[in-house]
Amino acid sequence: MNVNQREKLASPADRDRASSAGDTADPDKLKNNLEKYEHLQELAQAILCGDTAPLQASAPPLAAPKTAAMKAELVADFGIAWLRVSAIAFVILILSGFSTFATVHDSDGSVASVGALLNAAHDGDTIVLPKGTFSWTETLTITKGITLQGQTTISGAGTANASANDATIVKDDTPRSRPIIKTALNPSQAFRLTGITFAPGTTTNAGTTDGAITLRSDGVSPNNSVRLDHCHFAQLYQVHLVQVNGWTYGVADHNFIELRPVSVAFMVNHPTYANKTAGHGSWADYPWYGSERFFFIETNTIKRINAKEARGMTDTVTGGRFLVRHNYIQDCFIGNHGTEAGAPRGGRACEVYNNVFNFTIRKGLQAGGLRSGTTLWHDNQLTGFEVSQLCRFANFRETPARSYPIWGIADGTSPWDANDTEGNGTYVEGHPPHLFDSGTDTSSVNSQGVIHDSSKNWTPNQWVGYSIKNTNPASGSNTLGSYIISNTSNTITYNYYAGSDTRSHLVFNAGDTYEIHRVLFMMDQNGSGKSDLLSGTNRPINTRSGTASWAHSSREPCYSWNNVYTPNGHVYGFHANPAQPTTKINIDFFNLGGGFPADTTPSAVSTKYVAALNGVDYTGTFTYPHPLVSGKPTAAQRDTKSQQPRWGKKEESKKPKKKRSWPKQVGE
């Protein structure tokens, strides 16, 4: 109850009612009674509902409630009959927003015990694990909005010196293809997982699931009430520790996460965003920077143990949206996957700010590596070995890194991209891709990255930023393409992907034919955003055209500012291969440098991300701590309109449209 509410209750009318009930009309006495009322309310809440937060070392233990004294205070101070105390307490709890029917269930710590209690539990209940070590050999599936609470406590989360008091330990002895815990929630169910240490079991084989802890909610609206906090992940033998899936928002906070050399801490996916599939709904909506429409990763300590190189701390596909802030991150970088091989779309958007990145090894020195979508990075501190770059942008579909993707390679010929159709840097819908040149490889050796055509007399480097495609039906590389890095008068050097994680490599043999085309804007590239609504997984279509066609992706530039290597003050920004056809500096991404006041938004960002592009005017970051952490819901930077994406009537219109010429910077 705040001061204004007290003043209101102490109004003359309230004093008159209090006097007629036998209480004093003295304002000071009434305010004092109201303070006692609040104290009793807190005690009643503790009695009936329990404290769901694990008690941290810095917090003193709660004194045992003295119910007799509580009743005495109610009788003495409010003139309430003794027999009516229970009813009044019931009303107090209802008015304070607590359900008097919430129950605390004490388990013996085994998965069987927790599962049995879960069957009897209701939304709002708490299941408590005691101190001890427990081997879980099967997955716990949670379909109710409960709190699952252990006794582990975390100190120093968000700093380099985090530690855990591992009071409740769950050992991972689950089958390697299954998670330890998974939720299957609806949007109205609040879930919290808190105070548990997850440690390796007897096996050292890495789990193949996409999340040892899988947090999922599906429905016609998002679930904003999922929290994972004060847990210790003690070097699990799992590839992905936490997976966020469905249409789930919320926060992971105050965790101490120790990663094995190749583990990923968070996999954030939003495949059923807007009740669609494959992330299509997320890509058809605004980025919503500065709002709650992300999964928040905040105030955690995340360390890679015995690291040989920096590896990804995050990953995402299917339109995933996540935000990383106020964490201590050691030997890890922020990563995502793009729209590349199959129908699932790439990562949609992320914000990364106010983190400390510390690198204790020299290999893989970068704080980020992103392959799709839009991002804002600011006020991050880099320390340890100096990085080579802040964050690298790579558009994998512009190479055969994912050969024969469902979307086609972005080499200037895929119908999903805006290609140069006129030969002058212009895209016109309905026109075929422009053929700039063609020929035959005359090399006497197989070409892995270089082709030779003795019949040509090109200007050096005239084809940089264009793409070359193998068009020999008899070749094992037929239809594969990649972007051109350089050329001489009769040779072309292209980006040759040599990785083993692709089905085929782009190789030219003597006699193989080729074509040269140009892509202007790749669908879902780094620096792109809101698109037409697509549908389907096996053979996706653009619902606007009913066919595979350019998705009219908007240009949502990436911005970097105030990202500093603290030992020497060097300011870092984004980087992309300059030969890559799309994602260009000062078009698709901007490095604004340093010197801005801490935690402020440069005008270049706020004037770009207005409501027409962002869904809401972006004026700054979303409230910190997250409302699920602070317990203080706020409207700051929060969109109050429907959670459903707004797909304009103009896009849904079935009227035939005139062919349209796009300028060189498609997406503006």
CA(first)-CA(last) distance = 49 Å
Largest sheet: 12 strands, parallel
Q: Ranges with pLDDT <50 over ≥5 residues?
A: 1-27, 36-99, 635-665
Which geometry do the CA atoms define? elongated
Number of helices: 11
SSE inventory with pairings:
Elements lengths: L2 H7 L2 H9 L6 H23 L17 H12 L6 H11 L8 E3 L4 H10 L5 E3 L3 E5 L3 E3 L4 E3 L3 E3 L7 E3 L2 E5 L8 E3 L7 E4 L2 E4 L12 E5 L8 E4 L2 E3 L5 E7 L3 E4 L2 E4 L4 E5 L11 H4 L11 E4 L2 E4 L6 E2 L1 E2 L5 E5 L2 E3 L1 E4 L13 E5 L2 E4 L6 E5 L3 E5 L2 E4 L4 E5 L24 E2 L7 E2 L8 E4 L9 E3 L14 E4 L10 E7 L3 E4 L18 E5 L1 E3 L12 E2 L5 E2 L15 E4 L2 E2 L4 E2 L2 E3 L12 E3 L11 H4 L4 H4 L12 H4 L18 H4 L8 E2 L6
Helix pairs in contact: 3-4
